[in-house]
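Tutorial handout. Part one gives the primary structure; part two gives the three-dimensional structure as tokens.
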Amino acid sequence: MNTVMTSSRRMAIREPDAILSEHDISAPVLRSLPLRVAIVASSYNYIRDGVALTMNRLVGYLESQGVEVRIYTPVSKQPAFDYKGTVVPVPSIALPGRSEYRLAFGLPQEEIEKFKPDLIHVALAPDPLGYSTLRIARKLNIPLVASYHTRYETYLKYYPGLSIFTSPLKRYLSKYYSNCQEIYVPTQSMIDTLVVDNQKGNLILWSRGVDAETFNPVHRSKDWRTRHGISSDEVIVLFVSRLVREKQLGIFASTIKALKARNIPVRPIIAGDGPARAELEREIPDAIFLGFQQGQDLATTYASSDIFLFPSETETFGNVTLEAMASGLPCVCADATGSQSLVQDGVTGFLAIPHNVDDFVAHVADIALDPIKRARMSEAARARALTFSWDETMKNLLSRYETVVRTFH
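Part two.
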């Protein structure tokens, strides 16, 4: 049974002042107290994206280790998938103009007081829920940690009239994270970017893992390719993501059209859905749109494809890129945060100049027209993906939790 942290350890949140290197997250800590962890998230079960799936995996791991967890998050009438843990709904409304997302309001203090967490972990958009969580953590003297999942400030340039808010949003996020005991960042390239941007606080590498049994080249299926009308000479170029502007769908479509103009036999397949689907269907009408996929269907789609093309530059990690690599796909990704820490340029794929269609075209064509190189990169991508372990990732984060709780005073 979980215990409650005594009041003597609940003092004001200190502003951390050190930047820790990536090995610090794995510092071993002997466990003496069961933990109660409150996770406050802007998205957890109402939409299926990388953030929600990562946080669900974390909750499942924590509960398997005897940690008592509550998730405070906005909800919808119908969850998007079978989720982990006990969810406590917070007030929210559909976000104007993007109804698939929800705008969350204040965190009810009485719910936190009732649960009595030893630590609060936030995975938030810049919404009122984040501010209220910080205020409550300070008031109740509970350590607050954050995981950095999304470069929200980069989204604004994809929506007319919103780019003027980029600098204010960046300042707000920087100030918010500086008030957290630790900030868990998924890649070293993202840590490097935050350091350059003068982000204060303890930036600690919390990487991601991949289920290398599910996402595996052994699931490649000739029958799957035949069923989707793929001829033997066609090279499948795969895109897996939510279909939203900030994923650089225009670059993907332009790359495919340029490859076809050069008579390179590529066939685009898109696994995912979202508000920009209709626009993408008009741009590349010969593409195969599979909609949202999961489980074995998604694993077969990855393994039965040939090249993974992902031009997004807003990623802090890129779960789909790692899944593609584990499935044996060479990856052509934007040379940006996230992908820089996954794709080994010229070895497991290529890093292309962001927004530069010609560069993406050149790299995809290089792989598509050289089956020997494609096979070599496939093997290298799989080998690289096997170095990312979910078990180690989650164990190391739990160690950080224990360290924060014990040293908070």
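Part three, for discussion. Residues 24 and 152 are 26 Å apart (CA to CA). Residues 1-31 have pLDDT under 50 and may be disordered.
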